[in-house]
Amino acid sequence: MKKLPIWMVTVLLLLGIITTYVGWIDRHEVGYIPFALGIIWILFAFAAAPRVFADD
């Protein structure tokens, strides 16, 4: 597998953080699904992070 661009992992991590924050603030109106999706996106970003520094 090839290297991943660092901007992809950074954007995924930021998207997860923002979604988690907004999901927690609005949990009484929309439920816990946005919060859970934010956590999942953060976990995907951490799982993809080692591929940024991988050798081809």
Report on the architecture of this protein.
With 56 residues, this protein is mainly α. The chain has one domain. It is built from three helices and no strands. Helix 1 runs antiparallel to helix 3. It is elongated and about 45 Å long. The protein starts with 5 loop residues before the first helix and ends in an 8-residue tail after the last helix. The model has no long low-confidence stretch (mean pLDDT 90).
Q: Key terms for this structure?
A:
56 residues, mainly alpha, elongated
Q: Mind sketching the topology for me?
A:
Layout: H1 6-25, H2 27-30, H3 33-48
Helix pairs in contact: 1-3
What's the short version?
With 56 residues, the chain is mainly alpha-helical. The protein has 3 helices and no strands. It is elongated, with a radius of gyration of 13 Å.
